[in-house]
Amino acid sequence: MLSSLFKYIVQIALKIFFRKIVIVQSEAMPNEGPMIVAANHPSTIMDASVVGCLLKQKPKFLTKATVFKKPLNRWLLQNMGAIPVQRAADSPDGKADTKFLFSKCFERLAAGDTILIFPEGVSKHGRQLHKIKTGAARIALGAEGEHAFGLGIKIITVGLNYSNPRRFRSDLYITIKPAIQVSDWQQTYIEDERLAVQQLTAKISNQLQEQIIVTQDAAEDNLLQQIEDIYQNTLIDQIKTDEQLETKQFKASKSLEEALRYYQETDAQRVAQLRIQLDNYFYNLQRLKLKDDLLESKALKQSIFTAAVLKLLGLLLGFSIWLYGLLNNYLAYRIPSLLAQVITKDEEYIAPIMMYIGILSFPIFYGLQIYLFSYLEPNFYGLFFYMISLPISGFFALHYWQRLKDTKDQWTLFSSFYSKKKLFSKIITQRAAIVQELEEAQQIYTELLDRQYELN
User: Fold this and answer.
1) For the whole model, what pTM was predicted?
2) Dihedral of the alpha carbons of 82, 209, 228, 405, in degrees to the nearest 10
3) Which of 103, 160, 192, 450 has its CA 20 to 30 A from that of 401?
């Protein structure tokens, strides 16, 4: 169970770890149970931390027993209120131990508590939604069945969309759907328990699919990512609402996902041809060490040379502050990364372990630095401003590092434009052809949706 202090510290750590956290329909999350929160599971420990901090109440959550084997994982999970689940795949006799688990869940729900469940049953990085298991529905319906459907249990689905769950200062987009009332399945449950479980599980699955970007496998995910790189901004510009950019990005990606699935089912040859075009285009980009966003029409409106010079001047102006931030923050920032890689080789654990080690490393290093600085500058105001400067300069150094990479990319573009004109021109032509193909496909798909809307 998350203690109040532990939860507060994790909330701060999440705000530091992620560059931006956007929550859609946060008002849909009830302040009290009994309820089950069902979320997708792309990032093991990080997912539990994120969803746990969304809740005002302190949840219990279910996770596979094998995760508890590592000491650090066990400590983290126990502090966060984890309940180990022995799955059939992890049991020596090939049988899952559900009787005791279900009885404990029924007991907690009857007491008005909240249980966090990841109904996929597995955690794997990527934009795939694995088959939703029936556990959440069985627990909810079973608990209500024991109390003649008088508990009022709700199921809340939460969609977690990470731009990159392994990378520090990435983005997180969270969607929350209005509560599913378990009592709506009372009559079905009385007549046929299995059917009620199947229907409620399908409801959970359908909602989660609406809340996240879903691809079938790594190949489809790569194809969708390539299309997003080239065409997402075009779709965003077409969304004429006052919604924040991240919501528009999600809607654009969701529409691309749905359109891609439609064409895979109805015109596989078109998709195959597009895949070849995209692979060739991104291969040529890689040859020049360029990124697609540098070749968008908006980016090319400004003189390539002028843009490169302006970025370089910006770096020169901020160099001294960057150096100060680097010297004062490097060890506190670097040590969590090194220790995480020593603790585990499993990539899905590295980011959350880094975050939790950072919770300790930054206060320790900042404390030592402030202590040493007090000998050089015993004046209170000088010491106070030094203390404030540590996190501020640290964030500046991270921002500067990104600007440094952007500047390098801009100068690479400038160099390619003049030294490899033939290949550069070919890339521009390839991109224009892909955009035209995507626009034609979008028009056909939009007209189809309009006709379906009129018929309904």
Assistant:
1) 0.86
2) -10
3) 160
